[in-house]
Amino acid sequence: MKRWIGSLILASLGTLALAQAPFTIVRPADGAKVRETVHILIPKGSIPDGGYVGVFLGGKFLEATVPPLKGKYYDYALNTKALKLADTEPGKPLKLELVLYVDYEEKSRIVDRTSIDVNIGNQANIPVPNSGIRLRYTFVPGTRMIYRLDQRTSVSPISDVDNSNGGRAAEFTADGETIRMAYEVMNAYGDGDGLLRMQPLPEKGKDYALLTVNEQPQTKFFDYEMAPIYMRIHSTGQEVFGSVPGYVPMEGSAGGGSRTDLLGAFPLPTLPSKPVHVGDSWQSQFQEGAIDLNNLFEMESIVVPFAARGEFVDTEWEGGHPCAKIRHSIEAAKPSKEGARLKAAGAQFTDDKVSLEETIWFAMDTHQVLKIVRDETIDRKVDNSQLGMGQGMPPGMGGPGGQMGGPNFSGPPGGGKASGDQMVPIIADAQGPGMGRPGGKFGGQGGRGPGMGPGMGQGGPFGPGGGPPGFGQGRGGAPQTSQATFIRIRLLQTFTLESN
């Protein structure tokens, strides 16, 4: 009898074993060459209820997870670029190991393991000629590119005392937004120039987009309210001219151009004028969108250029294309003895400064921008009396009336201009380039006044006429003190090619 029961138990365990799919990596193959995001597939049914997978790469633990089930396989996405993994040397692959765990009596037990070797090559097989590479846009009439812009704004406040004592500011992130833009090549010229039509688009599958414009609450814009801008550019991306088409009424009727249409000014980044090698740098420029609603239909330019440092960082695969990775950067600061002291002490905040950096992935085969990551940061020391303490918001962040910025679409007349003899950055306000809202980031006396002059003069980021973006007269303000506060405002934008 006991033998019969034992045989029955063993048979049951054997049935369970047969029902359990083998825990093994189906793809990629052992020794495969991989880049960007690698999809690691393991059979459906190989992870029992309550089980999970530990992921190890090169002996280092990455995470424990249950990969999403897609069809017949669990699909774990390994983003080698997000992990900043260097290319492997020939003959020295990395070991990718998956370990199957099951919780038993409140403890994790290893049930199975599977592993393969992978060779990473995010920079591999992208040759650059000895004479350098000439990076140029190629314009083919009828080509339509759709980009998605994801952006978020954050604020990091810290008291002067805490900063001096080596403290670190907490970062509070405001709600982000997603904007879609279409770029259509309307004409190509013999000298290499192209005529582009830029226009905002609704959200996917909808006929409208919810956007924050001009510090107003989020507004619904329908597709028929989204107007185009035309821009002729050189093959290096520099503007030749830009204009907003006027409305021409029917004969015998009166009319004018719409003042309520949504306009988006997102110029493409500029490229180096000469062939470049990896590691080369050059005098480049940013092109910020600039829309003047006071002279909307008389405008012959929709950008404000300012000098920047260009650098050919590396070659890299992005979206399945071999790319030149380019970086543009600029920083302006107001040096002080106190700032030097804080820097020597290792403080997080030192002097008032503004910095802007963008990284561009330019496809060397399709001659298109595939991705842009732009990081814009303002560090500023202010007195607490300048800050509104919004109800329900983190200390220092504005409540109603002090909203963080939104997308860079047209608004009321505004936007700063440069002053002084030197080239100074005209970085648009926290809503992004092209907004032209009153009291722009470098606006003084309520906007449209002098921009950031030499040494961050009176028309600085938080000049007369308003506080920093996102700091308003919030309702239910908290008690204020005379203690000074350092504030960092950061706008992070990621511009990605969806389709063409």
Kindly report how far apart the N and C termini lie.
Answer: 73 Å
Helices and strands: which structural class? Answer: mainly beta
Mean pLDDT: 76
Helix segment tally = 3
Report low-confidence residues grouped into runs of 5 or more: 1-19, 388-482
The portion of residues forming beta strands comes to 35-45%
- Report the principal-axis shape: globular
Structural account:
- Strands 9, 10, 11, 12, 15, 16, 17, 18, 19, 20, 21 and 22 form a twelve-stranded antiparallel β-sheet that branches. Strands 1-8-7-3-4 form a five-stranded mixed β-sheet, with no helix packed on it. It has a three-stranded antiparallel β-sheet with strand order 2-6-5, with no helix packed on it.
- It contains three helices and 22 strands.
- It is 6% helix and 39% strand.
- With 500 residues, it is mostly beta strands.
- β11 and β12 form a beta hairpin.
- Residues 1-19 and 388-482 have low confidence and may be disordered.
- The chain starts with a helix and ends with a strand.
